Inverse folding.
């Protein structure tokens, strides 16, 4: 059973009808976004099925549409300048949501060849809804991926060593080619992988998401 159905079932069992109803409404809204964009991303896949180690924390699970859209609306991407990079883009849900906004370019990198392939299919299916037409899904290891010098935004829904290495690479990239870099971290508790904070970037704001995990937004100034 997917985690949200489990949450609905638990709340129903405990008699928390209002909370169960709220989760249900949220889930309908998420399903609606998936249907509208024509994508197929609502899965949970264990890390060992993706060719990662059994203890790897980076299983596949998709970003919540509602929470990520809310963050991007507030960030107001500039179509002339802003390029979003997503390490561990899975089936491409967040890449598609980002490309609905007017980024100049969106780049996703995914380790699993199977998921990278699915992500490309999802981008193709959602094409008519995308304001950003320059979308790339690269298959490979995000820790060794050379971050392009024009990347201005990074979205991290990853954990553990992977998150620590990608953040270290982003820091080097922002210093090598001096530019402001906005970093969106989903589930900021994952920052424990880097001692609980990003000391080289300023914490700008948080976007709580009652049902799908919070977002923390940082900016590294040149
Ligand atoms: C939580 S999922 C992120 C899903 C995606 N952000 C979304 O919203 O749909 C984490 C993803 O990281 C991928 N991953 C794990 N290790 C990786 C690595 N070294 N390089 C690239 N991707 C990796 C996993 O295969 C998985 O798809």
């Amino acid at each position: 059973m997917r985690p949200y159905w489990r949450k609905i079932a638990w709340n129903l069992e405990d008699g928390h009808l209002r909370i169960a109803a709220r989760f249900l409404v949220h889930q309908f809204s998420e399903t609606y976004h998936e249907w509208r964009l024509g994508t197929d991303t609502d899965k949970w896949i264990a890390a060992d099925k993706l060719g990662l180690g059994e203890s790897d924390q980076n299983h596949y699970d998709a970003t919540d549409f509602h929470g990520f859209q809310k963050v991007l609306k507030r960030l107001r991407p500039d179509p002339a300048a802003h390029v979003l990079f997503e390490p561990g883009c899975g089936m491409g849900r967040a890449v598609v949501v980002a490309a609905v906004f007017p980024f100049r370019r969106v780049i996703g990198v995914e380790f699993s060849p199977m998921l990278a392939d699915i992500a490309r299919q999802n981008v193709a299916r959602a094409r008519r809804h995308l304001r950003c037409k320059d979308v790339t899904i690269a298959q490979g290891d995000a820790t060794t991926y050379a971050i392009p010098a024009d990347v201005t935004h990074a979205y991290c829904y990853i954990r553990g060593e992977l998150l620590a290495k990608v953040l270290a690479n982003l820091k080097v990239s922002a210093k090598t080619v001096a530019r402001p870099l906005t970093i969106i971290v989903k589930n900021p508790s994952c920052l424990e992988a880097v001692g609980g904070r990003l000391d080289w970037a300023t914490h700008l704001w948080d976007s709580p998401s009652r049902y799908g995990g919070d977002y923390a937004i940082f900016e590294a100034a040149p």
Residues 41, 50, 52, 58, 60-63, 87-91, 93-94, 109-112, 115, 141-143, 157-158, 162 surround S-adenosylmethionine (CB under 6 Å).
